[in-house]
Each structure stands twice: as structure tokens, then as C-alpha cells.
């Protein structure tokens, strides 16, 4: 059973604490949540062309799952998405983006430009977008 430290039961106010927990702990909790719900494997390294990448969750049917517990924008996120789509194009399957509220911050979800890119990708590929906007971490207690 995964135990969540008491500090994550309440919002964390300082930027340094928020950054630490968001980068080092909350992302692992998101992966554990998806694994708990759907099974599969977490932190799986795959290849798309010449690019090696690690996906947060690989579902039993081969679907890729990327979990985000902060707001998402910028060229790194776009590059990551392009690699995932290349993998889906080469190997089949699907891509699922999960945007989680964070127990340590208030911003979540894609930026407007990134949301447009996801919407365009969903016209060509099997791309699902989910917003988990409740206290999901409590389900892991």
C-alpha cells in the first residue's frame, strides 16, 4: 500500500516546496494512480525512430499514457508529444494524456497552444485527453 506523507494532504504554499514535490514525488503518484486503475507497466523506455523515450505508463493493450500534474507548455512538451506520435504511427496503439490537479500546486492542464496541438493530433491518431480534477491522491491511501 502506498502511503502519502501528511504534507501532501494540504496545499503547500512555498514555491521551492511546490517545485520539489511536483518534480520528484507527484509525478510518481500520478503514474501509480494510473497503474492502480488500469494495470500495465510504469516508467517504460521505448524507441521511436532514433529517439529513446520513457513513457509514464504503458497500458496492457499497448497504449501510451503521459501524466502531467502541472501546467504544460513549451517546446519540450511539443517535442515529447511528437516523439509519442511517431511511436504510435510506427507501432499502432493509442496515446492518452492525463492532466492531474496537484496536491502541491494550483495550475494544471495544457496551455492553449499545446491544447491546439493535442486537438490536431487527435484528428489523425487515437489521442485521448483526460482531466483528473479531484483529490485523486486520496484514492491511493
Fold and architecture overview:
- It contains 3 helices and 7 strands.
- By secondary structure, the chain is an alpha/beta fold.
- Strands 1-2-3-5-7 form a 5-stranded mixed β-sheet, with helices on both faces. A two-stranded parallel ribbon has the order 4-6.
- The longest helix is centred in the N-terminal third of the chain and has 24 residues, at 15-38.
- The protein is globular and about 40 Å long.
- The termini are close together.
Gist of the model:
The protein contains three helices and seven strands. It is α/β, with parallel strands linked by helices and 141 residues long. The chain has a domain of 88 residues.
Helicity level, as a percent range? Answer: 25-40%
Task: Extract low-pLDDT stretches.
Answer: 1-9
Order of helices and strands: HEEEEHEEHE
Roughly how many Å apart are the termini? 7 Å
Main sheet properties: 5 strands, mixed
The percent range for strand residues is 25-35%
Strands side by side in the biggest sheet: 1-2-3-5-7
Number of helices: 3
Shape: globular
- What would the average pLDDT be, to the nearest integer? 83
Helix vs. strand class:
alpha/beta
Amino acid at each position: 500500500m502506498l502511503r502519502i506523507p501528511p504534507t501532501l494532504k494540504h496545499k503547500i504554499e512555498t514555491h521551492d516546496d511546490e517545485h520539489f514535490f511536483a518534480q520528484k514525488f507527484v509525478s510518481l503518484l500520478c503514474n501509480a494512480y494510473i497503474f492502480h486503475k488500469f494495470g500495465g507497466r510504469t516508467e517504460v523506455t521505448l524507441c521511436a525512430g532514433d529517439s529513446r523515450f520513457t513513457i509514464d505508463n504503458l497500458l496492457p493493450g499497448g497504449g501510451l499514457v503521459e501524466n502531467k500534474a502541472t501546467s504544460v507548455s513549451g517546446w519540450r512538451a511539443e517535442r515529447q508529444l511528437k516523439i509519442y506520435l511517431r511511436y504510435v504511427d510506427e507501432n499502432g496503439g493509442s496515446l492518452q494524456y492525463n492532466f492531474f490537479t496537484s496536491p502541491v500546486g494550483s495550475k494544471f492542464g495544457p496551455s492553449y497552444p499545446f491544447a491546439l496541438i493535442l486537438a490536431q493530433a487527435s484528428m489523425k491518431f487515437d489521442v485521448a485527453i483526460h482531466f483528473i480534477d479531484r483529490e485523486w491522491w486520496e484514492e491511493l491511501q
